Amino acid sequence: MKKTFVIILIILLILLAITSYYVYNTKRLLNLAENYNKFYEDYSKKEISAANLISIINKAIDDNEKNGISKKPNSIYYEENNENSIKITVGFSEEYNNVPMENISQQGIETFMKVYQTAIFKCTNIQYHKETKRVKYLHFEYIKN
């Protein structure tokens, strides 16, 4: 009887430890996602300058590099990995509505800033990865010069 009670108690303690670890880890991952998202969400709620847009693009590219996001074969474009990749597109006009961040970066920051130095942009779409709840996509629209 005593042996059975001890075994049941040990099993219950193991289950409690596993459950506690799962809850702790889930909360920790959500907290990390919130902190990560805060940078992007702050800019998604207001009109921003071209310099701020470049900062966001640079951070997204840096985050993709740090997270080891691969690029499509023989391409400059990052692949989506459904976990921690991030893409940004910019709409300048109907003809150039979804210009990827990689194109803007490749053309050069200086060139972009010469043309859009006084421009104002606004985030019109923000999406999140389903599992990790991290920002996966932002779309900015050119508002005015």
Helix content: 40-55%
Overall geometry comes to elongated
Total count of strands: 5
Structural class, judged by helices and strands? alpha+beta
Strand content: 15-25%
**Cα distance, first to last residue?**
81 Å
Estimate the mean pLDDT confidence: 89
Q: How many helical elements?
A: 4
Unreliable stretches covering 5 or more consecutive residues: none
How is this structure best described in words?
The structure is a single chain. The protein is built from four helices and five strands, in the order H-E-H-E-E-H-H-E-E. With 145 residues, the chain is α+β, with helices and mostly antiparallel strands. The protein has helices at 2-44, 50-66, 101-107, 109-116, and strands at 47-49, 87-91, 99-100, 120-128, 135-144. The N and C termini lie far apart (81 Å).
Structural topology:
Elements: H1 2-44, E1 47-49, H2 50-66, E2 87-91, E3 99-100, H3 101-107, H4 109-116, E4 120-128, E5 135-144
Parallel strand pairs: 2-5
Antiparallel strand pairs: 1-4, 2-3, 4-5
Q: Could you name the key traits of this structure?
A:
about 140 residues; alpha+beta
Give a short summary of the structure.
The protein has helices at 2-44, 50-66, 101-107, 109-116; strands spanning 47-49, 87-91, 99-100, 120-128, 135-144. It is α+β, with helices and mostly antiparallel strands.
